[in-house]
Fold:
Amino acid sequence: VSDHAATMEQAVQGATQKLVRMTSGNAEVARSDAVDVAVVAALTPVCVANFRRDPDVVANLVALKEVDSWNQRSLIEKGGWISVAGSEPLEQSSSVAKACGEILVKE
Structure:
């Protein structure tokens, strides 16, 4: 009975440690997702404003509406409307471009 109890205790400790690692990993994923959502929410209006200020806004809007959503993202990224002066490229650029395009094509 003593060996069985020791084995069960080790199994419980191992499972607990694994659960703690998984939980902290899940917390990191959740934090990362929250950061991504915040960046997209903050920069989408910047992208839309930059797009609208472009001297070729009418032609760009026509082009944006003529392509599928994947190409809309690419067009917006290549147009540079996502960027903020003096900032580094974002890992969320594609998500910002998608959100920006979704707003602009409704105009």
Remarks:
- The mean pLDDT is 80.
- The chain has four helices and no strands.
